[in-house]
Known about the structure:
The chain has helices at 2-8, 12-15, 22-34, 51-68, 73-78, 93-105, 110-138, 166-175, 178-182, 194-198, 200-204, 208-227. It is an all-alpha fold. The protein has one domain: Tetracycline Repressor, domain 2. It is flat, with a radius of gyration of 20 Å. It starts with a helix and ends with a helix. Residues 143-166 have low confidence and may be disordered.
Amino acid sequence: xxxxxxxxxxxxxxxxxxxxxxxxxxxxxxxxxxxxxxxxxxxxxxxxxxxxxxxxxxxxxxxxxxxxxxxxxxxxxxxxxxxxxxxxxxxxxxxxxxxxxxxxxxxxxxxxxxxxxxxxxxxxxxxxxxxxxxxxxxxxxxxxxxxxxxxxxxxxxxxxxxxxxxxxxxxxxxxxxxxxxxxxxxxxxxxxxxxxxxxxxxxxxxxxxxxxxxxxxxxxxxxxxxxx
Length: 228
């Protein structure tokens, strides 16, 4: 709380006028991040073009808020939810209700609803924890990007900008040496791990976007198989 106060230029005690505990503050951060789905114009509240399109848009919406807030995403994954069955990262009760109702309207029976809900969240959680972890390791600074309700970029100083294009990210990576890409904190001994260092650039290449799309298609195929 002292660190937050210093960042804001206020005494730590003044924060307790707004949040009675540190946990309340962390829960508020999670709520603020997750509810960005409500303002994502590419995410739909219904399956106008079928359940695959609905889930695909929802998955990409969750990925967008995770990449906009890579330092905060672990909170989304680990903060206690409102109930034990609430699975992150889709931890908003309103979005869970929307997802289950939409799929039920598409003909999913209760067993198929449970399979889709659990598989969808497990896929997103594991993949996005890996991807945001890589982002924070490559740019280990305090703060992260933020997205306003109007959908405009408003990055926190020293953080990642969610408005950064793929081309900008690629040009940043291209300027780095293989060692910098593979080992940004200089923790991996080249003499001890020579093969890793010989493949440094290839190991550090960012294929997250393509791999996410491919894995999402595989997940949706599994859901379709359950329906069949």
